[in-house]
């Protein structure tokens, strides 16, 4: 299996501006069902911190790096950061992972 054929895990951490947590949560919740319908997305989940209501975590698993690239260029993905600009307290923290033992 080549590197590009391996599953890809992507995590994104979001921090809402003060007073914007409910709106950010609503916006994130609206995007999850849309993304779950894409071919190549194996898992797509949204979490909220137990200790800080302003912190959210998106976990996604893709069949391949190509699947992730396709997701990134969907209109709703491309518009996300611009639409969230007034809700976020800083840029999202994005991490990508590949399996080394699974």
What does this structure look like?
With 102 residues, the protein is of the alpha+beta class. The chain has a single domain, classed as 2-Layer Sandwich (Alpha-Beta Plaits), CATH 3.30.70.100. The chain has helices at 21-36, 65-72, 75-78, 80-84, and strands spanning 8-15, 41-48, 55-62, 93-98. A hairpin with a 6-residue loop joins strand 2 and strand 3. The longest helix is centred in the first third of the chain and has 16 residues, at 21-36. The model has no long low-confidence stretch (mean pLDDT 92).
CATH secondary-structure class = Alpha Beta
Residue windows where pLDDT falls under 50 for at least 5 positions: none
Q: Over the alpha carbons, how many angstroms does the gyration radius reach? A: 14 Å
- Please outline the major beta sheet: 4 strands, antiparallel
Mean pLDDT: 92
Shape: globular
Number of strands: 4
Please state the second-level CATH architecture: 2-Layer Sandwich
User: How many domain modules?
Assistant: 1
Tally of individual helices: 4
Helix proportion of residues, in percent?
25-40%
Strand content: 25-35%
Q: Would you give the CATH topology?
A: Alpha-Beta Plaits
Task: Name the structural class.
Answer: alpha+beta
SSE sequence, one letter per element: EHEEHHHE
Strand order, largest beta sheet:
2-3-1-4
- Report the span from N to C terminus: 14 Å
């Amino acid at each position: 299996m080549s590197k590009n054929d391996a599953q890809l895990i992507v995590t994104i951490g979001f921090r809402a501006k003060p007073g914007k947590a409910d709106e950010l949560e609503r916006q994130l919740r609206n995007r999850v069902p849309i993304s779950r319908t894409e071919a190549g997305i194996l898992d797509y989940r949204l979490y909220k911190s137990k200790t800080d209501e302003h912190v959210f975590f998106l976990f996604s698993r893709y069949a391949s790096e190509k699947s992730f690239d396709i997701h990134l260029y969907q209109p709703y993905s491309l518009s996300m950061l611009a639409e969230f600009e007034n809700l976020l307290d800083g840029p999202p923290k994005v991490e990508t992972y590949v399996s080394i033992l699974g």
